[in-house]
Design brief:
The chain is α+β, with helices and mostly antiparallel strands and about 600 residues long. Helices cover about 30% and strands about 20% of the residues. The strands form six sheets. Strands 11, 12, 13, 14, 17, 18, 19 and 20 form an eight-stranded mixed β-sheet that branches. Strands 1-10-9-8 form a four-stranded mixed β-sheet, covered by helices on one side. Helix 3 runs parallel beside helix 7 and helix 19 packs antiparallel against helix 20. The longest helix has 19 residues.
């Protein structure tokens, strides 16, 4: 009995510590981190990894941007390109093919070692190596074919052809890594950036010894340690990596060696000494974690949680909510070439994909599942951008039109069993498929369920399955999923859809997970990358949006605002139109609960 009461006393003391915000460690500390000036941020799932060259996803990118740095970057407030590691924007050669950057003086990595032009050249060689699992980011830097360190502070990028997006893509997708950490044996010295770029386009033109050198480097660089181990994940950003417990949390500490720590610029602030990203897949569990003090901040709550779970004087005294618009969209992807499914490829026919869009009741989804807190969309281009094609109209929910399109594509119920079927190589195959969503994402599960109900009405059997994000991402890359509910968070600059829909991006783990092939679309996307005149380029943008609208590789759902809830002990709040719409190091965490 005494042991029982002892446990009760310990539990009550712990509960009081959480409620009061005192916890363990420093007086007034956050109960999870044990430190005063710290912040615990909710993650819906573990990132794929922390190597910024061969890991993707919004969670990973948000953490990469704290650990690593760019030559140039998008300014949080103005969204204009600004120099970061570079002293100024690059000098452009008369033919616009060479970009010369001059690094700032005194740059260092988090271990105190100097950052030089050779680190920049190494990072380019690593990224462009065709044997490194970095196809999506290589696609973004498609036009760059060389990067040379002229001296310790001068770096020259060479472009096969200059294009209007190249600087933007460099700002967003190119991180500088320390060569002494990621290539301690100097394996990348045995090939050049031009060799790597040539091997992507014309592998047979590259000498065997160069290809062997690239393979040797890639084998070392793909080491799992570079994704998750302290001492292997290291950059020159405002924070340094301090540990990852799988399925639980990732910990960052202020980088005391940060090269720009004396600056007053908002993008240089390091107000927090500790940032913890805590993984909680289930939104309801995350809600309880916020209320108990286990986390300080989340941008992943469902609309009904924001609307109903933070009302009342006591909760409003402690917690605040915020809705922040930023570039993103939700969609359903239709795989046109499902690997391992044999001849039955229902979504290879654009009429079927359009029928599926007519069976997706976006108005109902927004009204019932999002409490009206999102906007329906017709294009992947941000609706606030001038290139957005405003002539495209919402595809209305229409069962009759869906039936007609399916019948036109050959899908009818020939045996009276209530399921549509079609002849494939002499065999009648029923129309059934599985739609997947990321485990723990209740909104996406409900969207899939809504589609399941609508499809049943016209004779299509839909199964619903969830997958852990890392498993789902791997299967998307291998084109194994029939359909999925997904979302893209992107940047606020002019959009380039090449990496999502160009046929070349079906290969080498590219982002064209729908296996979409349309030569006309390829031609327009290629032309956009070459056209310097903004008015002519805008016409091309609207053209590719029209083609994709007609083909429906994605059924577009809605653009959402970030739904944020946080403990009011967080001060210095700042919100931006660029992902992830907030910058953790600008916050501070007061010692006591409001």
């Amino acid at each position: 009995m005494g042991d029982f009461f002892g446990k009760i006393i310990i539990f009550c003391a712990a509960l009081y510590a959480v409620i009061s915000g005192t916890g363990c460690g420093e007086p007034g500390a956050n109960p999870v981190s044990g430190r005063k000036n710290s912040m615990v941020i909710h993650l819906g799932n573990d990132p794929e990894g922390l190597n910024p060259i061969n890991s993707v996803g919004a969670n990973a990118t948000n953490i990469h941007n704290l650990i690593f740095d760019h030559l140039i970057a998008l300014d949080f407030e103005t969204l204009a390109l600004v120099p970061r590691l570079a002293e100024t924007m690059p000098e452009v050669s008369p033919d616009k093919r060479n970009l010369t950057f001059r690094l700032r003086e005194g740059l260092t990595f988090a271990d105190g070692q100097p950052l030089t032009a050779e680190d920049v050249a190494f990072s380019f060689r690593a990224l462009m190596n065709p044997y490194v699992d970095s196809a999506p980011k290589r696609a973004e830097l498609h036009d760059f074919i060389g990067c040379t360190a002229e001296d310790e502070r001068t770096i020259v990028f060479t472009q096969e052809q200059s294009g209007p997006f190249n600087l933007n893509r460099l700002a967003i997708n190119f991180f500088v890594l320390p060569k002494h950490i990621y290539d301690p044996d100097n394996l990348s010295d045995n090939y050049t950036g031009r060799d790597a770029s040539l091997a992507i386009r014309y592998p047979e033109a590259v000498a065997p010894e160069k290809r062997a050198a690239m393979e040797a480097f890639a084998a070392a660089f793909e080491d799992e340690n570079f994704q998750r181990e302290v001492g292997y994940v290291l950059g020159s950003g405002r924070y340094r990596f301090d540990g990852w417990t799988t399925g639980q949390s990732i910990r960052l500490l202020r980088n005391e060696q940060y090269w720009n720590k004396e600056s007053d610029a908002s993008d240089a602030r390091q107000n927090l000494d500790t940032i913890i990203f805590k993984t909680i897949p289930d939104a309801q569990t995350a809600l309880q974690a916020l209320k108990s003090g286990e986390i300080d901040f989340s941008d992943r709550f469902e609309p009904d949680q924001i609307a109903s779970k933070f009302s009342g004087p006591e909760l409003e005294r402690i917690f605040a909510t915020k809705s922040v618009p930023y570039p993103n969209y939700a969609y359903i992807g239709w795989n046109q070439n499902i690997r391992g499914k044999g001849p039955v490829q229902p979504f290879a026919d654009p009429r079927v994909r359009r029928a599926m869009s007519h069976l997706t009741d976006v108005v109902e989804i927004i009204s019932n599942l999002l409490n009206g807190s999102a906007e329906p969309i017709t294009s992947m281009v941000y609706y606030n951008r001038p290139e957005h094609n405003k002539a495209l109209k919402q595809i209305a929910y229409d069962e009759d039109r869906a039936r007609a399109l399916l019948a036109e594509a050959g899908w009818t119920d020939t045996d009276g069993d209530g399921l549509l079927d079609k002849d494939f190589q002499g065999t009648r195959a029923p129309f059934r498929f599985t739609i997947y969503y990321k485990r723990g994402n209740e909104l996406r599960r409900r969207i899939a369920r809504n589609l399941q109900d609508k499809c049943k009405k016209v004779g299509i059997e839909v199964k619903i399955a969830d997958l852990d994000w890392t498993v789902m991402l791997d299967r998307l890359k291998r084109h194994e999923l029939d359909a999925w509910v997904g979302g893209w968070v992107y940047d606020s600059d002019e959009q380039d859809l090449y990496s999502l829909f160009h046929s070349s991006q079906m290969l080498n783990d590219g982002y064209n997970w729908t296996s979409y092939i349309n030569p006309a679309a390829d031609s327009v996307m290629e032309a956009i990358r070459k056209e310097w005149d903004p008015e002519r380029r805008a016409v091309l943008h609207r053209d590719i949006q029209r083609i994709l609208y007609e083909d429906q590789p994605y059924t577009l759902l809605f653009a959402n605002a970030a739904r944020i809830a946080y403990n009011k002990r967080l001060t210095n709040q700042a919100w931006y139109g660029q992902r992830p719409c907030y910058d953790p190091p600008q916050f501070s965490l007061a010692a006591q609960q409001p």
